[in-house]
Amino acid sequence: MKGALEGWRRNLAVLWLGTFIAGMGFSEVMPFLSLYVGQMGNFTKGQLTMYSGLTYAVTFFVIAIVSPLWGKLADRRGRKLMLLRSSLGMAIVIGLMGFVHNVWILILLRFLQGLCAGYIPNASALIATETPKENSGTAIGILTTGYVSGNLIGPILGGVLAQVFSIRLTFIITGILLLIVFVLSLTLVHENYHPSAAPVDQQSGNLLSQFKNPTLIITLLVSTMIIQMGNNSITPIISLYVKELMHNVGPITVVAGIIAALPGISTLLSAPRLGQLGDTRGTDRILVFGFVFAILMYFPQGFVSSIWTLGLLRFMIGISDGALFPTVQTLLSKNTPQHLTGTIFSWNQSFQALGSMLGSLLGGVVSNWFDYNGVFIFTALSLLLNFIVVLIFIPSMRHPFAKKA
Asked: Which spans are transmembrane here (predicted)?
């Protein structure tokens, strides 16, 4: 038993580092991707906006489509194989981005990056299946801090590397880091993978019929999409909102960067503790807390007049993220047959990618209709509707505090 415990802890340590670097590699290029597109030709402002938008969106679009396919393959062949496919593929594709001089080739490589995605959901699936059930919430909470902190540090590190070296060299450095992830995953991650007695294709019924509670699974996947939609609806306008609150005076870009980073910092701090509380007090309680807390924190952001107040509320949003994302993953893990864990975690990534696309789109539309503060109110209302749906379709959520600890 001791050896098994040491095995899952080693997996957790290696995959934490892997998801950290993968999250960092995915987000590292975001601050300067539009600038890089601008180097590909003499574009008008409208053309640059169009090409930049396409370059950003194509990766999420592909992830949303192919993630379920990779998840099915993971359940057939094992999650470690998918970790190796993803890390090696991303290392090659992102490294090659440093050598392109044509915007359409860059878009093609971003398309291929979407095909190579899947490291983080397969890491989550492997941890979920290799970790004792009584520790799964804690382990997934800790793993969440890996890719959250990677996403947090990535844009900052990418901006520094691009400034000190060059944008092209930053892509190459990121590719090298992902190659290190491949080697670590190959040599140090262990999976006790045993194929299901009946192949997935031969199991009776469709995918949802293989779950004891298909409605719960659908509700959780939709919740992932709406939570991520809420996070991403803020992204396109946060710097503009900061500029408005600061009356266009002072270090606006620095303050906007700090404000954007605050939720990630608080998620990093809160997710492991909330995961432990979920294991000891019940995941239902943590999910209810996450929804209520997020709704209460989003609404007032649309009415603030001080940058300090906005910063405090954005920090609090990270706490709700630390409750919501790991808890949804833990509930998916606990309510999924082991032979379908990779499939369902990949579906979860697919819904998260859809949320990213919808959030960016709706954030821009809502801000045009109702100004910046309307985006925060729209997000709060979306989460409120999501919470009502959860209460309707997951009965255990209606009385979470009546349950025994």
From this structure: 12-36, 48-70, 82-101, 140-165, 171-190, 249-271, 283-300, 312-332, 376-394
Q: What is the pLDDT of residues 197-231, one digit of tens each?
A: 544 444 434 666 777 788 888 899 999 999 988 88
Query: Comparing 290 with 132, which gets the higher pLDDT?
Result: 290
For residue 186, the SS3 value is helix
What angle separates helix 103-116 from helix 45-77, to the nearest 10 degrees?
30
Nearest in space to 183 (alpha carbons), one of 88, 79, 264, 269? 88
Domain that holds residue 312: 210-404
> Of 118, 121, 108, nearest to 85 (Cα)?
118
Number of separate domains in the chain: 2
State the DSSP string of 28-50.
Answer: HTGGGHHHHHHTTS---HHHHHH
Q: Is residue 201, in this structure, part of any structural domain at all?
A: no
User: Rg of the Cα trace of the chain?
Assistant: 21
Number of C-beta neighbours around residue 280 at 10 A: 11
Which residues, 6+ apart, have CB-to-CB distance to 163 below 8 Å? none
- My answer on whether 109 and 257 are in the same domain is no
- Which residue among 158, 189, 220 closes a domain? 189
d(CA 397, CA 399): 6
Q: Are 36 and 103 in contact (CB under 8 A)?
A: no
CATH code of residue 108? 1.20.1250.20
Owner of token pair 């470690």: 80
Write the pLDDT tens digit of every residue in 323-345: 888 888 888 878 888 777 777 87
